[in-house]
Amino acid sequence: MSRFFSEKYKNLTPYTPGEQPQEGGFVKLNTNESPFPPSPKAAAALSSAEINKLRLYPDPESRLIRRALAANLSLDIENIFVGNGSDEVLAFIFAAFFDGEREVCFPEISYGFYPVYCELYGIKTNTIPLKEDYSIDIEAFVRTDKSVVLANPNSPTGMAVPGADIEKLLKKRERLVIVDEAYIDFGGESAVELVKSYDNLIVVQTLSKSRSLAGGRLGYAVACPELIADLFNIKYSFNSYNVNRLTEIVAAAAVEDKDYFEYTRREIIKNRERTVKWLESRGFDVLPSAANFIFTKSGQINGAALYQRLRAKGILVRHFNKPRLSDFVRISIGSDSDTDKLLKALGEIISTIEDDL
User: Fold this and answer.
1) Would residue 295 count as lying in a domain?
2) Residues 6+ apart with CB under 8 A from 234
3) Final residue of a structural domain among 203, 222, 256
4) What is the CATH number of the domain that holds 306?
5) What pLDDT, in 10s, does the model give residues 268-302?
6) Residues 93-138: pLDDT tens digits?
7) Contact 221, 181 (CB under 8 A)
8) At 202, which helix (H) or strand (E)?
9) Total-model pTM
10) Sign of the C-alpha dihedral, residues 73, 76, 77, 83?
11) How many structural domains does the chain have?
């Protein structure tokens, strides 16, 4: 830390992203990326003419992708805000609607960026523990008067909250409810339709997971026009051109290719269920997942050791060395080939442990 670093940030604990190894040879199941390439229509949308337009600034209103998203969700363009990944969208939301006076509430175990944003912006927080079974305690959130941020499905657990429970939270109209649906396309129930009835709801989604565009960085918020206008005010105070030209073109094509989206989504769900079945047959505990990852633990080996042994075999998963999480590993769902390699490696690890007993 330099001597020029701001005093107000000296105790900031930044978010730690998943490992992105530059060397090859790993089966990468640690950051919930799609095992599939983007839609072929996304690649076809690029051309030398479009690349030549990089000399020009992009549309600050990102109308091409906002129209595509609005059409896909049966909403109006005024209901859509886009950003450089859903992380940026969430950062704008925290900046726009919370401060040192207005407190925000989220689960104690959830996406690691939420407490980082609060520390960065000086936002008062109130966290609510997960239940014993790692599910979100919806009734505790219903009872509070504070604004709420929920990841649904939650991360890193993968467990989903029913739409009816989200609507319970919205009944208190004086508070804002943000539902972070990064993984919603793999089995959860989206709250997007509720935007038509509630002006205190913001739904955040991303094209990183189910549209295979993690490297493109395109996330979006869905809300009533007044909340979307607030987000534009924050954006124009920060970065007018936050979505680049090529990302917008590729993203619009990916959103419009519904057949490819459905195919890749089904394949990931199929491999998730295959992986869960195998793990449970070998004595692993697996939390019920509606995401493109699973959260699992074994009674025969702790989470840190399992992570290390898998890494030694060329399989990257995620381990969180935190209370209530340290026994688990989070495993992204890969392709058929990735799944074969994962299960083979896990089988060898467990067999070795059993042989040593």
Assistant:
1) yes
2) 92, 95, 96
3) 256
4) 3.90.1150.10
5) 999 999 999 999 999 999 999 999 999 999 999 99
6) 999 999 878 889 999 999 999 999 999 999 999 999 999 999 999 9
7) no
8) strand 201-206
9) 0.96
10) negative
11) 2
